[in-house]
Amino acid sequence: MKKMKYQDYYSNVANKISPYQWEEGIPSNALRFDTNTLPFPPSCLPEFFKKIKNDCPINDYNDPKYSKLKYLVADCEKVEPNMISITNSGDEAIDVLAKTFFNPGDNFLVTPPSYEMFTLQCLINNGNLIESPLLDKTYDVNYKDIIEKSRSKKIKIIFLCNPNNPTGTVIKINTIEEIINKSGSIVVVDEVYREFYGKSSVQLLKKYNNLVILRSFSKFGAIAGVRVGYLISNPDLTLKFENIRLPLGVGYLSCKLAEYVLKYDKAGMRKQIEMIKLERKKLSEEFSKIGFTVLPSYANFLLVKIGKNAEKICGKLKQKGIIIRDRSKKKYLEGCVRITVKSNKENMFLIKAIKEVLNEEEKKII
């Protein structure tokens, strides 16, 4: 039988896209500081499993409108339910945005270094990348450049990450408003890490119809494994998102757990977030004592400048069963690593391991 040359059928996009890069070869028992997830699952999880055990019609489809979850999210965000679109994670939310707005070749703008899925999902959907890099050293947005490019390049979507991943830096709300007001583009503000900062652009939805807020349960809800996110926007845009997204993209159990977390774990969420903020300060101080440069962070991670030995140190830590996110070869992040803030016990274990690695390297030089 003649074999079909299926490679000839690949789309242009499939031929040029590289996958999102995760660390490979990680042992199952590794201590992971590379995923920006919270150290503990929701405190209500045992009760949720007891309840769902006796009420779990898993043989049937979920409510395709996610009506109950929408209502609970809207209540938390202090908006109307018709301003919420539930998605399978924040990443699907980006895909929905791209599908909603892009014709082939339409321009989108990102502010590198920022969340890489903005670029990946938009390129998959035939968008054209325009960059407005963050300013050197401070990693602040160059808002004048963003506004100028939005007009001269006819940008369809501007992606702003606040707090920004991987730097942990923030954009002032009045700066975001200026970009929304003067750009003439759809402005998407990723607020996945909002709880670790404490400020939001949601109130600007009352004034501007070109604003979309992107959110995820992965961080504030501590349920990254179930993949639930959402978009907040004006009702007309939300209706378009609802038409575009997969009708049953969020599974029954995922949806029910998200509902349960919002109803019964608000105190638990606040407690864990406050713990992370406290540990963030402690961990930053420990890295400074070692001699590393630490960027002030408003997220649940730190960007740490280790220098030319960053890759080697990451490798040595991996041998010890500890994974941190090596960004040292990335443009704009040379010599840097990103480290998730975890519990005090885990953080101190990391610090001890880094000191051991540095001592080992020092002995080799001597």
TrEMBL record:
PANTHER family in alphabetical order: HISTIDINOL-PHOSPHATE AMINOTRANSFERASE, HISTIDINOL-PHOSPHATE AMINOTRANSFERASE-RELATED
Superkingdom classification of source: Bacteria
CC cofactor: pyridoxal 5'-phosphate
GO MF terms held by the record: pyridoxal phosphate binding; transaminase activity
Domain Aminotransferase class I/classII large: 29-348
InterPro entries documented for this protein: Aminotransferase_I/II_large, PyrdxlP-dep_Trfase, PyrdxlP-dep_Trfase_major, PyrdxlP-dep_Trfase_small
Pfam families in the record: Aminotran_1_2
Species annotation: Candidatus Gottesmanbacteria bacterium CG11_big_fil_rev_8_21_14_0_20_37_11
Keyword 4Fe-4S: no
Swiss-Prot/TrEMBL keywords: Aminotransferase, Pyridoxal phosphate, Transferase
CDD domains tied to this protein: AAT_like
Full protein name: Aminotransferase class I/classII large domain-containing protein
UniProt entry tagged with the keyword Transferase: yes
